[in-house]
Design a protein that fits this description.
The structure is a homodimer of 320-residue chains. Chain A is of the alpha/beta class and 320 residues long. The first copy, chain A, contains 13 helices and ten strands. Chain A has one domain: TIM Barrel, CATH 3.20.20. Chains A, B: It comes from Trujillonella endophytica.
């Protein structure tokens, strides 16, 4: 408790968190397809940041996601980097087989908690998507990998509106029962806010004690970093972010994408939370990414030129 | 304390906060001068949001800030709106006299905690700026108004680097001793982060018990809303924000400005914190503002089209 200004407020944060870079997948999936060389240059720059987990691609229909149609070629190149755990997203058991065959047994499988998004995104309802978790978990573990179930539209759906907490909790419980090693709650359209973050995390953990629960926030409405900080205060240590904030929402043209890796790293490192990620290296990776996608990235920190306190002009403006 | 996932985390927020709209002053001060009619249209739209405090203009050198050279004309029109407390920023006693004479006795006076910014912004060092507080406080109270001292560069300075906490605390103490009714801590260049917010608030309150302390954040590096939420958790209930996030930093061209009113209202109202401000009305005011300044506003929420969960397309993307 706080709110009494006679006592200092204690902002309790963990000594370290574990960030997963999702720019190669969530960031690129809506872009025009990039040449493999550009993707490898991005990966090279991202590995150089010190990040320990990178979602490298997704094994999904090349017709639905042409930007990631080269998943096999990307996967074939991952052996050149050590010290980083690469994973891939899949949308069904067929994708899981492809990923495992390509040498990427650490999988993320997306299940939308809302039927509307599930049908639009994956061509089937939530129950049907949940039913495939066991098979995918078996494919991952059989290949020495792990399975994380990412619950999309965990808070809100662009088709069905607010997702009842009970729906998201049901998916979480079913995922763990079916063999998921970890969960991740996705704010797919960037609408959630801090109090709702806390409430859903609490509800999910009650039914899945001991299961690691990560968060995947979009910054579409300017709430992403506040949501991330709140989740971390609530004990979350696994967060997704994307270099430069790359990754729009297909349902909100022009909107910002994932929370920007450099903004999350800046916020946390300056608050004493170790990320293992070098901020200047992320900004360098953002430059590589910006050149590759050919358009301005949404990250405010990147556009402001980084961490450093800028040298000013002598313009007098009575600024505060 | 928290960080133990066996116990639910309790996000403690106050039932209400008091937002001051600074778009008319901090938002416009770097823009090309607007016609008075455009400013009155902005004010009309801002009053309609339900906000209870509006910083209407500043009485500073028209040479230094040509965009606000019409402060007297703006002040002369404020009587048409009731139920809103209008205030004005001043940079010295001369400005305070002008403001009081114009019928705006509720003043904000900016003192930079760092000498470098103080000299660039106001043509004199911090000590000299502090020495004027008593005279300005007397002018305000003599006219039935109040004085808030906004401590600019409270955390960082574009010229001097990090501002030692002791410097900011010294200004705070001197301001209250000299008659300031309230304080406001300004993150002038948008570099601070949550843990530093908590530490400075704690230090300032120790030396100024019982004095209301507000916060003024810029979103230049994507940390503004997280800083605001942290300050609120720490007991702050007075926050500055700007419609559409208008208001760049003169030392970081292209960077975002003040935290956006609509983003703060969205984050707080959805978290159960009453602001008295109607989100849709702020978005309407942002449209008025965007037309007036003739360029895209930085607010992510505004660009995403508001609060509502958008209706999607049928595009299948395996999005999370």
């Amino acid at each position: 408790m706080h709110l009494d200004d006679r006592d200092p407020f204690d902002l309790v944060l963990p000594p370290a968190v574990d960030i997963r870079e999702v720019g190669m997948r969530d960031g690129l999936q809506l872009e025009a397809p990039l040449p493999l060389a550009d993707k490898l240059a991005m990966l090279e720059a991202l590995v150089a940041t010190g990040v320990r987990r990178i979602e490298a691609t997704s094994f999904v229909s090349p017709r639905a996601v042409p930007a990631l149609a080269d998943a096999d070629q990307v996967a074939a190149e991952l052996g050149r980097w050590s010290g980083v755990a690469f994973s891939a997203l899949v949308a069904n058991p067929r994708g899981a087989v492809r990923a495992v065959d390509a040498g990427v047994p650490d999988l993320e499988y997306v299940v939308s908690a809302s039927d509307g998004h599930s049908r639009a995104n994956a061509g089937r309802g939530t129950a049907e998507a949940v039913a495939a978790i066991g098979e995918i978990a078996g494919l991952a573990s059989g290949a020495g990998g792990t399975l994380e179930v990412i619950i999309a539209t965990a808070w809100d759906c662009p088709f069905d509106g607010r997702t009842p907490i009970a729906r998201t909790v049901d998916v979480a419980r079913a995922a763990v029962t079916a063999g998921a090693d970890r969960l991740c709650l996705g704010d797919t359209i960037g609408t959630t806010t801090p109090m709702r973050v806390v409430r859903l995390l609490d509800a999910v953990r009650r039914v899945c004690p001991g299961v690691p629960v990560g968060v995947h926030f979009h910054d579409t409405r300017g709430t992403g970093q506040a949501n991330a900080l709140t989740a971390i205060q609530a004990g979350v240590t696994q967060l997704d972010s994307s270099v430069g904030g790359l990754g729009g929402c297909p349902f909100a043209p022009g909107a910002s994408g994932n929370i920007a890796t450099e903004e999350l790293v800046y916020l946390l490192e300056e608050s004493g939370v170790h990320t293992g990620i070098d901020l200047d290296a992320v900004l360098a990776a953002a430059r590589v990414t910006e050149r590759a996608v050919g358009r301005e990235l949404p990250s405010s920190l990147y556009r402001a030129g980084g961490r450093s306190v800028p040298r000013g002009t002598e313009q007098a403006v009575a600024a505060s």
